[in-house]
Amino acid sequence: MTTRGTPEPKTHTPGLWTAHDEEDATGALPCVLTDRVNAGGNFYVAQCNAFADARLIAAAPKLLATLEGLNHMGGDDRGGYCICPARDGSAPDARHSTSCADARAAIRQATED
């Protein structure tokens, strides 16, 4: 999605994301800020309707990195983990969770256009 004529970035806003509950006399809503100036020239990542949403959004980069690390299927020194019978996430069955396939779908949703 593009807003205010600003093209959507291909990667997420860099830096540490933190949730802020900025409800005050000005009526500001809870938000997520980064510790680096973003492409828009400010520190905002998102403005939220609820502080719980801000906490979840602030955790997103770490959650994505963790999920990618857990779902990496070898081929280099990063290791990886898979609970599917084929050990590659391709063949979940009734004895195993479909978590590997679900994780890969979530990673694609977060990283692909």
Task: Please describe what this structure looks like.
- By secondary structure, the chain is of the alpha+beta class.
- It folds into 2 domains: 60 residues, no CATH class; 43 residues, no CATH class.
- The chain has 2 helices and 3 strands, in the order E-E-E-H-H.
- Strands 1-2-3 form a 3-stranded antiparallel sheet.
- It is elongated.
- The N and C termini lie close together (10 Å).
**Helix residue percentage:** 25-40%
Counting helices, strands and paired strands, the structural category is alpha+beta
Report Rg: 18 Å
Distance between the termini: 10 Å
Biggest sheet record: 3 strands, antiparallel
The total beta strand count reads 3
Number of domains: 2
Strand order of the largest sheet: 1-2-3
Number of helices, counting only DSSP H or I runs of 4 residues or more:
2
Mean pLDDT: 74
Amount of beta strand:
5-15%
Question: Unreliable segments (pLDDT under 50, ≥5 consecutive)?
Answer: 1-5
Reading the helices and strands in chain order gives EEEHH
List the helices and strands and how they pair.
Layout: E1 17-20, E2 31-34, E3 44-47, H1 51-70, H2 99-111
Antiparallel strand pairs: 1-2, 2-3
